[in-house]
Recover the amino acids of this structure.
């Protein structure tokens, strides 16, 4: 088992499984965030956030989520290192552009920026709400007001939207690659997976990308 997990294929399988788990989390996270659009002054989102904090199941899933992120990043870094060692000399003439696009060739770059976004996002919302207590029941703002304040900041709104765009492109390639790694890469499933990956990427782009736009221009909130 250890030999398999340390092999290139094993690392790709771990990346695929953790990546698909993170996709499931994104759906759940988007559902929770959409409660911000309820015409109730943010009450539904505040209650949802409060219930999540006090749910043993959600807290357990959070631990798994952080482990999945760490594993996904570690496997990506190790695979990149293995690939670099396997081909230390670049070809003088490369035809890679004929078979792949920029995003598929730079998953590591987009993934690194997404990781940076996650850290900043957690610092702005998770830490004040769950650790320092400056947002929430005992803080100056409730969590819905904190989201409004953050996304009406032009710098953070632009950063958030740009990050979501990169995330959607990352998912468009990564979603398909994950299933291919798990063996679903035949002619029967390939077109379906391609459509599903593009559809999921668009869902993430439109869903999460709507928040900085609607909040910054005061259409909601």
């Amino acid at each position: 088992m250890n030999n398999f997990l340390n092999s290139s294929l094993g690392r790709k399988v771990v990346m695929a499984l953790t990546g698909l788990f993170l996709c499931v989390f994104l759906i759940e996270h988007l559902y929770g965030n959409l409660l911000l659009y309820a015409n109730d002054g943010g009450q539904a989102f505040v209650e949802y956030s409060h219930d999540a904090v006090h749910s043993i199941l959600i807290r357990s899933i959070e631990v798994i989520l952080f482990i999945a992120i760490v594993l996904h990043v570690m496997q990506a870094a190790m695979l990149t290192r293995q690939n670099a060692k396997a081909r230390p000399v670049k070809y003088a003439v490369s035809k890679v552009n004929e078979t792949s696009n920029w995003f598929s060739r730079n998953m590591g770059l987009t993934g690194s920026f997404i990781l940076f976004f996650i850290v900043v996002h957690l610092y702005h919302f998770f830490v004040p709400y769950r650790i320092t207590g400056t947002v929430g029941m005992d803080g100056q703002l409730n969590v819905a007001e904190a989201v409004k304040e953050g996304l009406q900041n032009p710098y953070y709104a632009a950063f958030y939207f740009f990050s979501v765009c990169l995330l959607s492109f990352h998912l468009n390639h990564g979603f398909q690659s994950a299933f291919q790694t798990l063996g679903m890469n035949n002619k029967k499933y390939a077109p379906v997976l391609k459509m599903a990956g593009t559809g999921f990427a668009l869902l993430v782009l439109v869903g999460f990308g709507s928040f900085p736009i609607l909040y910054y221009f005061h259409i909601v909130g």
In short: The chain has one domain: 2-216. The chain has a mean pLDDT of 88.
